[in-house]
Amino acid sequence: QLTKPNYPISRTRVIIDDFDECTLSDSVKESIVTSISKLAEGQIIVSFSSAPAVLFSEVALPDPSIFRINPMKDSKLLDLVHKWKSIEGNGHTLTTDQPALAAFEKIQLIFNQTELEKSPYTAVTFLELLENANGSDLTFSSFAACYDALISSRLTAAGFPWNSHDEGKNFLSLLAYKCYESSDRSSIMYSDFEECLAIFSDQYLSNKNSLRKIAANFMRKEDDRLSFLEEYIWYFSCARYVENQLKSNDKVKYNEFIAE
Question: pTM for the whole thing?
Answer without folding.
Answer: 0.49
